[in-house]
Structures are given as C-alpha cells and as structure tokens.
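Exercise 7. Given the encoded structure of a 641-residue chain, write a plausible sequence.
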C-alpha cells in the first residue's frame, strides 16, 4: 500500500512532470513507467553481479561492457545534457529491442515507445527523484505504485476498472496455491499483478516460475497491457498478452484456453453493461448460459459473464480466485439461476467478504471467490463463508488493508477447513518465533538507552524481569499471550520515565542543564540535543514494543477461535454451509447471510494511543492542505494571476 513519505515522493515526481510541461496524466504515467523499467533492468543486473560474486559464477548480463553508459547506476551521475542524449538516443532504442524476437508481446508493445521528456534539466530532476523513491519501495509493490498513479486519472475506475491492492492479490494467491508446470490465465490482466504475485509464490518454493509456468493474459486497454508487459519484464517473466479488440474477453477467447487452465486469477471490471448478447453467445465459455438480456439484446450486467468465463477456463482439477462486486453474491433473476447451477457442481470452495476502502480513491465493497474442481470428496457439498468486513487495519481515513498477520489468520481459517492442519501448526510456531525475536530486538534497544534515563527508569526493572522470565520459560504461543498487558504497562512506564527526565532537565538553567546532560553522556553538547536524542531512541523502543503487541494481539485472535487447530464455525466470522443450507437461503453466496453478526469485541488500545493516531492523521491532512495551496499559488503565478 502506497502511503506516507513514499506517496509524497511519487507526488513530487508527478509535479516535476507537470511543471515541466507534461500535463497529460497518461503521458506522465507512461514516461514514469519507462524510466522505472530502465532502472529495474540495471537493478536486476546489479543483483545478478552481486550473487555471481558470492557464488563464483558468471552473472546474467543485460548490459555488456560496450553498453555500460546505458545503465541507470552510471548515467544518473552524468551531467544533464549528456544524460539526456544517452537516454534519448541509446537507452530507448536499446529497451525496445529487449526480450526476444519481433513477434514477442514485449516487442509488440514497445515498438511505439517514445521518449517525450522535453528538457535535460527536467529529466535530471525526475531521475534523481525516482532514484530516491525506489530506495524505499520494494519491487513487489510496483503494482501498488501504478494503482496510486492511476488514481490521479479522472477516468480511473470507468466501468469498474480498479487496480487490485497487493494484499488482496497475495490473499488470493495464497489460497489458490499455484504450482509449477501450470497454465495461468488472467482474462482482465491489467498491470499484471496476478502474474507477478503467482510467480513470487512459486519462486518462494525454490522453483523458477518463469521456466516452470506459462502466463496468458487478455487486456482490452492497450495502455494497461503495456504496463503489464513492462511489469512482467521487470520481474524477469515472460507472458503471452493479447490486447485491443481481439482481447475483449466478452467477445474472444484470445488464447483458445477454454477447459485447459490450471489456474484463473483475476480482478475484472465490475458491473459492465451494454455487452452484445449475440456476440457473447458466439464467443462461448458459458457453461450455465447467458445472464439476463434486455430488450436491446444486451447483457445489462456482465458480472456473471466473468464468473462463467473463470469457471469455463478451468481444467478438470483447476482452481480459480477472483475479485467480484459484493452485489454478485446475491443478485437475482438469471444471475441466481447461473449461481444455482454453479453451486450444484460442488466446485465453489470459498467466499470471502471484504470491507470497504480496500481500493484507492473509491469505497468499493467486494468479495473474493474461489473455485476448486479438485476439491476433496468430503468437501464437495460444502462452501466456506468468511466475513472479514470487521477485520482489517486502518491505513488512513480512506484506505484499509490486511496486515501480514491478519492475512495469515484468514488463510488459516481456509487451511483448517481444507484439513491442512500442519500449516496452522507452523503458523503458531511462526507467531512464537516472531514475538521472541521482537522481544530480543526491543530489549536490546532499551538496554543501550536505559543508562541515559539516569535512574528515572528504575520502575521498569521488575517489569523487565517479569517479561524476560515469561519469554525464557515459554514453549508455545499460548504462554506468550499474557505479555500483551505487561508490554502495555511497560510502554506506559517507559514514557513516564522519559517525561520525568525531560521535566527535570527543562527545569534547570541552561548551563546547569548542559552540565546535567554531560554527566549522563559525555558527548552531549547541549541539553536540548541530548533530550532530542534520548527521546528519539525511547520513541523507537516504544514503537518496537507496539509492533510486538500487535503480533501478540493477532496470535490471540487466532488461538481464541481455533485453539491448537480444529476448525469451528465462529459467529460473525466464518461458517461452513452445505448445499442444502445454501438452497434454503435461495442460493445466496453472501457470507453475512451465513455467519450472522459477531459479538462486540473490546478494544484493548487505550484512549491515549488512539488520540496519538488521530493527531498524526490531522498533521498529515494539514501537510496535504499546505501542499495543495502551494500548488495552487504556483499555478496562479504561471498564469500571471
């Protein structure tokens, strides 16, 4: 998720394009993406060279010795005029010829790539800013970067086209579980996030996804297809991507893959209307027939076209995971009839409701659907329903997400339903390991700063011993759960100790305060600098403790519901329903219909912590307002107003 300082850095790059004369948002994104791609090529070779040096092997080379000037790490140090000439006349022609023959998807989409940044000075600014941005942005988050940039378009979201947040993609991949030697299709490929995340999943198993998997995509919008191709190339992946009219999934099975795919992963545009019924019928992949057709012989809502396609692409053991509008779980008329037939196949595996505000720019309620044609026999007449609408982390006033541990917990529910208890057991061990490591980290940090509290931290000693004893004597996660309350008290005492120290020093005369600071730390030059240094380090320790408490809180959430690893229906969260029960609910697949309403859980976060979060959000809003006013003022100056 793109937030905070990373978002500000992206905004600065965007502003550099705007003030430099490139005001078409699509052009900004295109040029921005080209430069990101150029940098990623050099990063890839740098990593290969580092790995080769360690292993004593030859690195994989993208830029040979004659093309050293074309590498980002080299040309970024050139003066602006030379940099501009190298990129315009050498780098761009070079990248257009990368990745295979002229018939490859990459070559086809890059043949019209044009460098349009107008001046050397503007290019130098953008290159410098991108360099700073990518120092803080993991490569796996490029999809989120595109999502944030596209949120700036006034046309973003037309026909329900929204980029899929990384945490939703990761959730889907974890539950679909792609494996090597498989065919994966995304009939609404967008920027390729589904492919990248699937390959990451396979690579994490020690297998080269690019050589073991075949990726197929259809993307009607040419610009999106170009993003997809570059995103795949950045990650060292090859994909067969069709674009334009031939890739309109409503009218074409562009790769002729009906019934042949091991996996389908997709986030299609929601609620698309005016789809020509006859053309759609002729294109096939409709095992349950057409959805409702209006008097104009059009499908007025294409959600169940997508759902039918995803099912039709699967082979006899195939699995699918996709995002769909929340309304599709309970829509009526012909949609209900299609849904009934789909449920009766026994291949609907799981439905998960997702909270609002998981997408940039829009409050978009959705559900995650999972099909499995290879379900275990004992599960074929069952569907798992999960309602996660009350389980998420607030990023800011407009964005929610699942944290790493929240995703693991939701995955664990599915594991237990599927009988994969060993994964649940490993997760409990991972929790134990993480909490132990977090404890060691913040305790070591406190040890290094405790002497600077000059005796004001004496009250912390018995608490520290108590915490240490629990950690040393723990053998499983359940024995660590009591730490949460102790760590909360520990943070409170730590802040109180810092406050007492600062109040004492602030009450002294300037020279006395300086002497006091030097008596604690000989390197101290002034009381104010000493106070700032100690405060910063204590705040860091408190932050580490808070992170540890968050992990404990999620571990408690999981173990209170499922203990050592036995699936059970949980009111307001999850329910396994039989097909007979679903029929009684008029073939609804809405999780809330089955899980009912959860009891209200107490929030163990205190008022002070919540007020601190609100204060930080207020400061962010003030900063954004000031930035907006600066931009408006600058535009007025340009216009001579």
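Solution.
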């Amino acid at each position: 998720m793109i937030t905070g300082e990373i978002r500000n850095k992206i905004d600065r790059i965007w502003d550099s394009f705007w003030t430099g004369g490139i005001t078409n948002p699509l052009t900004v994104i295109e040029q921005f993406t080209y430069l990101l791609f150029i940098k990623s090529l050099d990063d890839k070779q740098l990593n290969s060279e580092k790995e080769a040096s360690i292993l004593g092997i030859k690195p994989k080379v993208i830029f040979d010795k004659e093309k050293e000037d074309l590498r980002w790490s080299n040309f970024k140090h050139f003066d602006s005029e030379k940099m501009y000439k190298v990129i315009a006349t050498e780098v761009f022609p070079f990248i257009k010829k990368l990745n295979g023959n002229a018939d490859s998807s990459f070559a086809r989409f890059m043949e019209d790539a044009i460098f349009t940044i107008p001046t050397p000075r503007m290019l130098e600014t953008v290159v410098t800013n991108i360099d700073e941005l990518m120092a803080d942005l993991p490569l796996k988050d490029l999809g989120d970067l595109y999502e944030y940039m596209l949120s700036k378009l006034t046309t973003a979201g037309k026909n329900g086209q929204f980029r899929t947040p990384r945490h939703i993609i990761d959730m889907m991949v974890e539950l679909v579980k792609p494996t090597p030697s498989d065919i994966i299709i995304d009939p609404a490929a967008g920027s390729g996030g589904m492919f990248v995340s699937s390959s990451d999943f396979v690579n994490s198993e020690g297998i080269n996804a690019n050589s073991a998997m075949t990726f197929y995509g259809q993307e009607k919008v040419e610009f999106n297809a170009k993003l997809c191709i570059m995103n795949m190339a950045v990650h060292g992946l090859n994909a067969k991507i069709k674009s334009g009219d031939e890739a309109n999934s409503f009218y074409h099975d562009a790769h002729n893959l009906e019934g042949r795919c091991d996996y389908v992963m997709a986030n299609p545009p929601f609620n698309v209307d005016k789809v020509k019924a006859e053309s759609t019928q002729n294109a096939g992949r409709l095992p349950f027939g057409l959805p409702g057709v209006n008097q104009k012989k059009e499908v007025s809502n294409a959600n169940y076209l997508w759902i039918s396609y995803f099912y039709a692409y699967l082979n006899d053991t195939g699995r699918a995971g996709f995002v769909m509008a929340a309304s599709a779980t309970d829509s009526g008329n012909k949609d209900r009839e299609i849904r009934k037939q789909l449920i009766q196949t026994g291949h609907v595996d799981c439905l998960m409701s997702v909270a609002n505000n998981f997408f940039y720019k829009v409050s978009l309620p959705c559900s995650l659907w999972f099909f499995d044609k290879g379900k275990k026999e004992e599960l074929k007449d069952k569907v798992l329903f999960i309602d996660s609408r009350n389980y998420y982390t607030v990023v800011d006033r407009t964005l929610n997400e699942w944290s790493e541990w929240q995703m693991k917990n939701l995955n664990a529910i599915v594991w237990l339903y599927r009988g994969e208890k060993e994964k649940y057991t490993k997760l409990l061990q991972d929790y134990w390991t993480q909490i132990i490591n977090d404890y060691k980290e913040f305790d070591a940090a406190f040890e290094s700063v405790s002497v600077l509290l000059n005796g004001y931290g004496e009250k912390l000693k018995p608490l520290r011993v108590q915490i240490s004893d629990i950690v040393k004597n723990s053998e499983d996660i359940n024995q660590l759960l009591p730490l949460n309350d102790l760590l909360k008290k520990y943070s409170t005492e730590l802040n109180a100790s810092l406050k007492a120290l600062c109040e004492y020093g602030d009450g002294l005369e300037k020279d006395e305060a300086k002497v006091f600071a030097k008596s604690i730390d000989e390197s101290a030059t002034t009381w104010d600098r000493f106070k700032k240094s100690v405060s910063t380090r204590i705040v860091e320790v408190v932050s580490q403790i808070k992170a540890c408490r968050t992990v404990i809180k999620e571990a408690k959430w999981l173990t209170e519901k499922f203990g050592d690893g036995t699936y059970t229906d949980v009111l307001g969260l999850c329910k396994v329903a039989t097909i007979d029960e679903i029929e009684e609910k008029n073939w609804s697949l809405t999780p809330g219909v089955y899980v009912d309403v959860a009891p209200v859980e107490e929030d163990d976060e205190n008022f002070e912590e919540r007020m601190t979060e609100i204060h930080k959000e207020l400061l962010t809003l003030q900063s954004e307002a000031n930035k907006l006013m600066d931009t408006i003022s600058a535009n007025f100056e340009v216009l001579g107003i």
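Remark. The first helix runs from residue 4 to 19. Students should compare their own answers with the one above.
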